[in-house]
Write a structure and sequence with these properties.
The structure is a homodimer. By secondary structure, chain A is mainly alpha-helical. Helices cover 69% and strands 0% of the residues of chain A. Chain A has a single domain, classed as Heme Oxygenase, Chain A (Up-down Bundle), CATH 1.20.910. The first copy, chain A, is globular. The N and C termini of chain A lie far apart (56 Å).
Chain lengths: 247, 247
Amino acid sequence: MKPLTPQELEAKLRAIGAQRYHRLHPFHALLHGGKCTKGQVQAWALNRYYYQAMIPVKDASLIARCEDPALRREWRRRLVDHDGESEGDGGITRWLKLTDGVGLDRDYVVSLAGLLPATRFAVEAYVHFVRDKTLLEAVASSLTELFSPQIISERLEGMLKGYDFVSADTLAYFAKRPPLARRDSDFALDYVKRHAKTPDAQQVVLKALEFKCDVLWAMLDALYHAYVAPKHIPPGAFVPEDGRRSG
Amino acid sequence: MKPLTPQELEAKLRAIGAQRYHRLHPFHALLHGGKCTKGQVQAWALNRYYYQAMIPVKDASLIARCEDPALRREWRRRLVDHDGESEGDGGITRWLKLTDGVGLDRDYVVSLAGLLPATRFAVEAYVHFVRDKTLLEAVASSLTELFSPQIISERLEGMLKGYDFVSADTLAYFAKRPPLARRDSDFALDYVKRHAKTPDAQQVVLKALEFKCDVLWAMLDALYHAYVAPKHIPPGAFVPEDGRRSG
């Protein structure tokens, strides 16, 4: 079996995005099309918060196993982006402005008490993947960022138009992300193209991106099942509007 | 805060089962009521296979962190139950008789190629929980077995009556389980009652059982979403009847 050229590898990675990235998930069609109820938007923001909150943990565990100062420095920017330079700054805080903006209590969001268990399992699978797999696979699993600028522009436009309870201020997270996502994914794509030279290494890179697409997809499947149809909210998870389920 | 008596702790554990054990999940009502299609039964057996296959891995990681030979010996029985004394024996093999019996290709089942990503994430969350939490929590997370004899008898009766493609031979796994589940859960319940003496320890025991109920529940949520309604099968997962999805 011949290795792919770097260009062929990139084409295969982009093909995975075109088929499996969560932009294609039916929940996003509802969310971006202004078709969600406020409770569904809340459930999405609440669950996605856990993903946002764990991103620096996953990035730090990548840095923690990396022997190359240049790669560590590069990856460290991601910690800065999410955790900020000081209290009140950074991507996680901007996500909390979104959960505030859609009417969720911040302490409740941060407590994770209302999280869907499936969200927790999917996010933790991502953290464990980055901690336990090869560095090459860990870098490759970040490549969903290649596809995020498009979904973010659809989301910004669609949510501003579709929901009167959403303002540009509420969506500040998304306005800031695309240039950072482009910088990060350009770097990660270049890294895997330079380091995945054998057919085996190229296969694990492709699998790592599929895995990451599965993580994002599974989070939306769980949201859809709990809050869109058939609305089977698992015991203990966030119940919109009519208050919180007891027990 | 006063600690619970062992009897009070047991009552609280049983109350969690009464509220959150997956016997109450709507998928089981369909499965046991003879209301599933053959493809839905196949999807259930295929996904549950991964849970069965990982049980000895989780049990071995409990034994691996345990300094008490008596507890290790006791827990070792679980390895014997699932892995058997020799090739062709044990619970995992009996589960494969079930997947054979419902018409799935054994190599396909064992390859895990058709698994729902959410199944993988939930099962791995359980394995990681047992590996990373305290020994007391690891033991407590096995306590769903307290509630399994009832669900198994409902399943045996319901599936034999409900599906002409299911025979007693196919369901051999279930016929064997109840006495083993009773022995194991009696031991584990006694263990947590003897070791969880402080309010904090009792809280983590209760949380561990809730966590495990969440794992089982999330597996059925994912099955329901993919194969019952709205039948959004995630990219790459098992597609009943009309063959396997490509890519």
